[in-house]
């Protein structure tokens, strides 16, 4: 699967961009926030991607930050949320705002996105409420709280701390701090060891 593209920004539209990677143009569908972050036409850019395949369609979704891609994947797990709706939410709200809305059960904030009614917004915040603390927010989110990425050693480390009795938000912050200290390639055991000291402190 294509996970990331690095090339030149060839052209853009309302909700898409073409990234030229060594002469091959990749059409990627993006949120307005990602489109704004890509820069000017002809400039170099890096975009994180997710490939969505259905019976009659195959499309590449693009994100300026891996945090936005992680939230996109989580949003599309909710019944009734397809790629277009997820991109609409990520166009209207920053990842920090989506996280805050889910954590606080603020369906009205999610309903600000185009095509998201109160009923769907309520389902999104209800289903993602318990998962909100374990996903990252983008650097410009403004929350000031480091959150661990979904999946991999960091997510396993968060689960381990939760099993030891730490609250999800505390576990997530401790593991994020540990990962910041040890680096992205840190092992689960090292993350748990350092995070335990931080959570206990």
UniProtKB/TrEMBL annotation:
Organism: Pontixanthobacter luteolus
Record Pfam families: HHH_5 (PF14520), RuvA_C (PF07499), RuvA_N (PF01330)
Any one GO molecular function term: four-way junction helicase activity
Gene Ontology CC terms, in alphabetical order: cytoplasm; Holliday junction helicase complex; Holliday junction resolvase complex
Swiss-Prot/TrEMBL GO biological process terms: DNA recombination; DNA repair
Keyword Cell membrane: no
Domain of life where this protein originates: Bacteria
Location within or outside the cell: Cytoplasm
Record gene name: ruvA
Quaternary assembly: Homotetramer. Forms an RuvA(8)-RuvB(12)-Holliday junction (HJ) complex. HJ DNA is sandwiched between 2 RuvA tetramers; dsDNA enters through RuvA and exits via RuvB. An RuvB hexamer assembles on each DNA strand where it exits the tetramer. Each RuvB hexamer is contacted by two RuvA subunits (via domain III) on 2 adjacent RuvB subunits; this complex drives branch migration. In the full resolvosome a probable DNA-RuvA(4)-RuvB(12)-RuvC(2) complex forms which resolves the HJ.
Family: Belongs to the RuvA family.
Chief location bin: cytoplasm
Free-text function comment from the UniProt entry: The RuvA-RuvB-RuvC complex processes Holliday junction (HJ) DNA during genetic recombination and DNA repair, while the RuvA-RuvB complex plays an important role in the rescue of blocked DNA replication forks via replication fork reversal (RFR). RuvA specifically binds to HJ cruciform DNA, conferring on it an open structure. The RuvB hexamer acts as an ATP-dependent pump, pulling dsDNA into and through the RuvAB complex. HJ branch migration allows RuvC to scan DNA until it finds its consensus sequence, where it cleaves and resolves the cruciform DNA.
Protein name as annotated: Holliday junction branch migration complex subunit RuvA
Domain Helix-hairpin-helix DNA-binding motif class intervals: 73-92, 108-127
Domain remarks: Has three domains with a flexible linker between the domains II and III and assumes an 'L' shape. Domain III is highly mobile and contacts RuvB.
């Amino acid at each position: 699967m294509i996970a990331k593209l690095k090339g030149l920004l060839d052209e853009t539209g309302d909700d898409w961009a073409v990234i030229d990677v060594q002469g091959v143009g990749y059409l990627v569908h993006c949120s307005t926030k990602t489109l704004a972050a890509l820069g000017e036409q002809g400039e170099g850019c890096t975009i994180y991607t997710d490939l969505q395949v259905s019976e009659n369609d195959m499309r590449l979704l693009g994100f300026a930050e891996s945090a936005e891609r992680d939230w996109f994947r989580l949003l599309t797990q909710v019944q009734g949320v397809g790629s277009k709706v997820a991109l609409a939410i990520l166009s209207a709200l920053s990842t920090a705002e989506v996280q805050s809305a889910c954590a606080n059960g603020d369906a009205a904030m999610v309903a600000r996105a185009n095509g998201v009614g109160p009923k769907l917004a309520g389902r999104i915040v209800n289903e993602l409420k318990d998962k909100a603390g374990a996903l990252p927010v983008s650097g410009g989110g403004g929350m000031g709280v480091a959150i661990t990425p979904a999946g991999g050693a960091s997510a396993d480390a968060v689960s381990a701390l939760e099993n030891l009795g730490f609250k999800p938000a505390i576990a997530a912050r401790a593991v994020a701090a540990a990962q910041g200290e040890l680096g992205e390639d840190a092992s689960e055991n090292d993350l748990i060891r350092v995070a335990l000291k931080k959570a206990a402190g």
